[in-house]
Amino acid sequence: MIGTSWTHLLARTLVRPLVGTWVRPNHLTTLRLLSGAAACVLFAQGTKGGMTWGGAVWLISAFLDRADGELARIGGMMSRGGHVYDYYADTVVNTGFFVAIGIGLRQSWLGHWSLGLGLLTGASMFLCSVLAEWLELRSPPGTRAYSGKWGFDPDDALYLMGPLAWLGWLAPILIGASVGATAMMLITAVRLLRVRRQTDMSAPTRTVPSGTTPVGPTA
Description:
By secondary structure, the chain is mainly alpha-helical. It has one domain (6-198): CDP-alcohol phosphotransferase transmembrane (TM) domain (Four Helix Bundle (Hemerythrin (Met), subunit A)). Helix content is 68%, strand content 0%. It has helices spanning 6-15, 25-45, 48-74, 80-104, 113-137, 161-167, 170-202. The model is unreliable at 210-219 (pLDDT under 50).
């Protein structure tokens, strides 16, 4: 499905010159994964330099998260394998981000609470990603687990992490994210259970013709 957020439109414009070249969406996904991992390593250091450079590299990684999908769409290079690769790369990077800042904020006023908050938020983000994927697979085509408004998608908030790191505001963000991500994970789980229940109820029931014996496993 074509993204309509401002970040999708910007990425679509910037990657258009790559159509018809040797550059493939998986190349951009690999750069997204590597830059995201590098940003996490920098954030985990917890130093001013680590936060400054981590924020810059994170913005590049966040842009590449949009760029690979847009190149695949406008270049006619969409594939199941590419989607799976992009999905796992995004899941790993977004989960790793919160774990990394939890490690890096040990010396902040959060103290060692930051480690627990980072792990909780990372685990919630991971489960949100998994449950959202399952929800979309079990829903009608074109259904999105999380929809945006006014030209913004929910995951556009990740772009803000770079500037917030520069401002030194990641500690309160981690507290808020631990609550928000956990709540979103629970809401997504409930939505998935409802979809599965509806699917099970609408599935046709096999009936056994009169006078026959059902065939089942033997002891």
